[in-house]
Predict the 3D structure of the following.
Amino acid sequence: MNPDAQIIVLDAGGQYCHLIARKVRDLGVYAEVRASETPACELASARGIVISGGPSSVYDPGSPTVDPAIFSCGVPVFGICYGQQLMAHLLGGEVRKGERGEYGMATLEMDPVSDALFEGLGGRQQVWMSHRDAVAGLPEGFSTAGRTATCAIAAMAAPGKKLYAVQFHPEVVHTERGREYLANFVFRVCGCRKDWDPRGRAPMLEREIRDAVGGRSVFFFVSGGVDSSVAFALCTRALGESRVRGVYVDTGLMREGESEFVGRLAGVAVEPAAEQFLSALKGVTEPERKRHIIGEEFVRVQERIMAERGLAEGSWILGQGTIYPDTIESGGTANAAVIKTHHNRVEGIRKLIEAGRIVEPLKSFYKDEVREVGRELGLPSELLERHPFPGPGLAIRCLCSEVDAPLRATADGYIVPVNSVGVQGDSRSYAPVLAIDALDHERATALINRLPGINRVIGSVRTRVPISRMQVRAGFLTPQRIARLPLADAAIRRLSQRAGFDQRVWQFPVILIPLGASAEFPDSVVLRPVDSVDGMTARSVSIDPALLQEMCAELFQQEGIAGVFLDLTHKPPGTIEWE
């Protein structure tokens, strides 16, 4: 039984509201998320209130708000990102759209303030930003506590009223002192006591599985990834092997050797379904359509297998390894924007959820927490330390174009008319890519912050012809292109493992884009190594020049490759996967 929440996080629709609550619980204090409009009288028993970030502008009609009475009820309030803007707006300050956005890492200059929240946190430090609007004028009684080169009021405080706010995200790992900000608020400002121990979660999850499943049995699609494998193991421990069945579906969109590896490691049957999935995806270029089609095909495969094996619908339900980022990126919270619909959140799956025919034991967990549960279960590190791999497979790493199109030269680089998905200001963006002749992460961040209309920057490593002579070529999910990507991916994984580079990054997607030099060389490869903890934010990682050239040499021996690029974009503004 959960204790009463000492900290309430009001959900203003951002990607991070549950991450804030989770980070507070990591401090040993129970926190929970509630709707932003929760009346102040229902929050009076809390020791502290946090207003989360969100994708809206405070001036937008229908944008999330809070009960203004929370600012005068005596409970400390901490506004984060949109939460700072909303606090300033409701208390008479000024919020305006900035001339430039600020996405990813930024340098914060904090004043040596001596109040409870900011004490000991003065000086220059790295923080994580995701905004375009900003506070331009302070409410009465507030003072500025910190600033960045782009944001003049990056932190503000009215200590006498116990009101504090920051424009950056202290809950994400890339804000280097973020844990200290949260700890100061929880313990120094709010006076909370430790009442939450996150250890020993497996027995609790097993009880929840038995309660949710009842007398039924569970059918799993096991992908071989961390999430589905841990969920499968939890259900097997909770219900017994006779009540849990697992199948691995080979969609034709898998990595080289993946089906054999998963079949051996997980000990489940492999169901070949490449023709079904590839036929459904023929001619499709838009990423959301790809994701929806793949999710719906999984539902059809499940129905077919259950019918063939005599698994009665009423006595069997579907198990999934859904984790919390899947839900929030799919727009699964009250005010959240859809960034990208995960295959386990398409319409067919939602109908099964509404009918009570799905169990998802990890749906409120993040990737690093899932790994901890797996260790508690005794699962092998060979499985738990695997890099994340997307449920839709290589379909969302093989970008498509319906037409040939030239690049557009600008003073900053070349606009590549291939759109990728991003997250800017907690909202989804779908925008072209900027290619530059440099591997400069700082320059890439500055360009994205300055230039509207792009959400990703790639640096040229090696191309068969100058970028100015390359062009986007019409390309679909054809057998030829789908075969090209696993070969490139396998080569990069092998070289990364041999060099030990795979141990330095959290994930290393290899992307195929239809950027070519000729009909003989129609595609380019983009390398996307990132460092992250939970997948909510990520830092683009450089590759040692010698290893990078070795990768290029290997890729240029393969058929059809016109160029190799390095993705220089952090998350935000670019999602880890391109689609």
Observations:
- The first helix runs from residue 17 to 26.
